[in-house]
Amino acid sequence: MDDAVRLESLTKTYGSGDSAVTALSDVHLAFPRGSFTAIMGPSGSGKSTLLQCAAALDGPTSGRVILDGTDVAGLTETGRTRLRRTSTGFVFQAFNLVPSLTAEQNVTLPVRLAGRRPDPRVVRWALAQVGLDDKAGRRPGQLSGGQQQRVAIARALVTGPAVLFADEPTGALDLATGREVMDLLRGIADRAATVVLVTHDPNVASCADRVVFLADGRLAGELHRPNPADVAAWLTALAVPR
Ligand SMILES: Nc1ncnc2c1ncn2[C@@H]1O[C@H](COP(=O)(O)OP(=O)(O)OP(=O)(O)O)[C@@H](O)[C@H]1O
User: Fold this and answer.
1) How far lies 29's CA from each of 5, 133, 204, in Å?
2) CB of 46 shorter than 6 A to ligand 1
């Protein structure tokens, strides 16, 4: 299977000299197209750094990131921004919607940022994907937390990205609403999208096809067709100092 993102010997160091911190060390990891992967690990293990490098938000110190067939290291800052806009969608814990804009206008933002005119049919399609086509005219303040996150997912889908990255997408939601958001992401992945998710929650991670564990910036193992009990057991084992 062709990979939506591939990390080859990815190393990321912040700072230099005595204050240097190696956040990721020699990570080899592929996210095949159509796969749904959760990244887990103790605090400080490198999850956010991995997501930022994989999404071309940040460049690696060494190694390669191949995103949607393009080697990120060979790009200028502008080239990285362009690749990000065409090939990635991002969903954050805090929704990050613009409060003064309607749901529909929020969804059109990535298209406008890419310098294109939004196609109303595509915007309606993205809102329909998240079950909010009847709420297109509402502002974020007139929507529940779960509905706001669904608008954020529609916004991430509107450019037809190669990969949808989600950083703790259920972190600000109650259990039942978080479950709905995960069912939605699961459905999106089932329709052949590639989803990469960072989470601390074994229940959330178990919606993925595969859980990849990090510890001290290195790959520490992976679980396929995960269940919450196995994921929790792995996390407990990784949290014990070695
Ligand atoms: N901008 C930065 N400058 C310096 N060090 C950083 C920076 N960002 C992250 N780090 C360090 O890199 C390591 C990995 O951080 P990262 O945020 O990727 O971990 P994480 O697994 O996402 O943690 P958490 O679960 O707490 O969010 C940590 O030691 C962190 O302190």
Assistant:
1) 8, 37, 21
2) yes
Q: Whose CA is nearest to atom 31 of ligand 1?
A: 44
Test site for ligand 1: of 49, 53, 58, 204, most ligand atoms within 8 A of the Cβ:
49
The pTM of the whole model exceeds 0.90: yes
Give the SS3 label for residue 184. Answer: helix
Find all residues with CB under 8 Å of 166, minimum gap 6, and list them: 90, 91, 185, 195, 196, 197, 198
Interface ipTM above 0.90:
yes
Q: Among 3.40.50.970, 2.40.50.140, 3.40.50.300, 3.30.10.20, name the CATH number for the domain at 3-239.
A: 3.40.50.300
Q: 48 CB less than 6 Å from ligand 1?
A: yes
**Each residue of 34-84: pLDDT tens digit?**
999 999 999 999 999 999 999 999 889 999 999 999 999 888 889 999 999
Domain residue ranges of the chain, discontinuous segments joined by +: 3-239
